[in-house]
Structure formats: C-alpha cells, structure tokens
Amino acid sequence: MNEVKLISGRGIPLVGDDIDTDRIIPARFLRCVTFDGLGEQVFADDRTQLKGEHPFDQPQYQGANILVVNANFGCGSSREHAPQAIIRWGIEAIIGESFAEIFFGNCIANGVPCVTASPEAIKTLQSKLQNNPQAQITLDLAAKQVKCDDWVAPISMGEGSRQMLLEGTWDSCGQLTQNPEQIKQTAQTLPYLAWQ
Q1: 72 contacts 95 by C-beta, under 8 angstroms
Q2: In Å, what is the CA distance from 80 to each residue of 104, 106, 138, 173, 176?
Q3: Whole-angstrom Cα distance, residue 178 to residue 196?
Q4: What count of Cα atoms within 13 Å lies in the side-chain half-sphere of residue 71?
Q5: Can you tell me the distance from the alpha carbon of 63 to that of 11, in angstroms, rounded to the nearest whole number?
Q6: Distance of CA 180 to the CA centre of its chain
Q7: In angstroms, how far is the first alpha carbon of the chain from the final one?
Q8: What does the pLDDT read at residue 182?
Q9: CB within 10 Å: which end of the chain, N or C, has fewer?
C-alpha cells in the first residue's frame, strides 16, 4: 500500500477561480487509449494563448510538484483525464481554496491529496511562490498544515479521504492485488463464476 503523509518540494501558483477540466485538458485530447502523454498537453489552450507566460511553461516552475490554486478548481465535466494530465506533468499534491467534487474524488483515487486552505492563506502562498519560485513547501497531512520556508498555515481535508491517504487505502487496485487468496475464495462462492 502506498501511504501519502508528507509531500515536499516546490510549488507552482496557478491564479484564477473556476478553472474547469476543459481548460486543464481540452476535449480533443480525450481520444487517447492510455493516459500516456497527457502531461505534455495539460492546459494546452491556456498555454498557447499565453505564449510562454503560463506558469506551466515558465522555467522557474519546471520540476515543481505542488500546485496552488484558487476556488472551484476542476469544475466542469467529470473527465478523469484532467487529474491524470496534472499528475503526468509531475504534480503530487494540490492546495486550493476549494475543489469540484468529482475532480477531488478522481485525484484521491490516484493518491493525490487536494487540501484546502483559507483564501488569504492561498493568496499568501501564491505570492510567496511568485516572489521566490525556489521556496520549499511541505504539505503535512498528519499535522494538517502547509509550510513554505518559515510560513505555516492550517489545511483542511475531509477526514475519510485524509485517512485513506494516510493509511494507503486510497489504492483500491493495490488492496486487491495484496489479497489474491481472498479473491480466489470469494470467487469460488459466486454462482455466476461457477457456471458450467
């Protein structure tokens, strides 16, 4: 099981409310058979429009692994490709004011915590990252806080999702593959699997 307790690294500020899944990964990229290569297309239209000025294109944020967003991030359609594109770009955690429910669930199902903080804390953190892109961030799910250098702020997350990440039970496929004998025993008791 893969426990998610502490994520450290550098942050990338993405300012703006209501950034929807079509902006995260435009619909034309949904035809893929696997999620491979989606990271290169994350925010494709926004990045084209901003001609290199989008945070995901700016050299100072390359290699960042913690995304800092504003309100209602991931709204719109329920496409699983959106968190997959973000993950495949290199993001391991997202800190924001609020998240769309389905986007949040898709992130948790992939072991990526989406934690919330107050609007004031988010704005402060984004400003710190804009002023110093090399600032180190630590997201501590157990302590329910985020640190950026000497600055600390409380974070929130639904207790069920937080416990799933802390205990490693977010990975349903991982749980199944750890219990092959129990799967075989259960399968033998299911009448629709025993038909001849």
Answers
A1: no
A2: 10, 6, 26, 16, 21
A3: 29
A4: 4
A5: 9
A6: 29
A7: 36
A8: 84
A9: C
Reduced to 3 states, what is the DSSP secondary structure of residue 101? helix
**CA 121 – CA 95 distance, rounded (Å):** 10
Please state the φ and ψ torsions of residue 68, each to the nearest 5 degrees.
Answer: -115, 115
The residues with which 147 forms a beta bridge, in sequence order, are 138, 152
Judge contact between 49 and 106, C-beta under 8 A.
no
Q: Give the pLDDT confidence of 82-130 residue by residue, as tens digits.
A: 999 999 999 999 999 999 999 999 999 999 999 999 999 999 999 999 9
Cα 66 to chain centroid distance, Å, stands at: 8
**Residue 74 is which amino acid?**
G
Residues linked to residue 146 through DSSP beta bridges, in sequence order: 139, 153
pTM here is 0.88
**Sequence-separated (6 or more) residues with CB below 8 Å from residue 179:** none
Q: CA-CA distance, 75 to 193, in Å (whole number)?
A: 40
Q: How far apart are CA 56 and CA 60, in angstroms?
A: 9
Q: Which helix (H) or strand (E) holds 137?
A: strand 136-140
Residue with tokens 């035809």: 31
